[in-house]
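Example 3.2
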Amino acid sequence: MAAARFVERLNEQIGYEFAASQQYIANAVYYDGQTLPRMAAFFYAQAVEERNHALMMVQYLLDADERVAIPGVAAPETEFDDIIAPVALALEQEKRVSDQIAALMGVAREEGDFLSEQVVQWFLKEQVEEVSTMSSLLAVAQRSSDAAMFIEDYLAREHGGGGTPDPTAPPVAGGAL
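Structure, written as tokens:
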């Protein structure tokens, strides 16, 4: 079904998504330790979202009757110099993931793998949102580094609701765990 080269790269991407999830947990724990509960909650939620991205990719491979290989991940960064550093790291990570997803799209196109290309489209759209969210949060954190409660207020205002699930999102392996 899916092109072999695409399957190989998607299995690699699954590892990147799990690594992103782990990094976001580390960010959340840092903010919990700084008594910034909104920042912590934001990154805990981001961790779940990244894990779900990995599981969407797993489900696609299962649906395509392809081999799933869950790669190990490197330990996340856990020491930060200030409250801005985890957000800056998150933005850097989202930009890197955007490049990785774009490369996946390139592989699908080169291989003429139109089904895989269609699935990757959703992830491309998602990355635009992720980079925008982290860019805005970084700008707020930089402006408010001396008054962290302003960052907390921003998150309460802008990211306080749970939002509605995207009906176009690919299914997650294991359902909505």
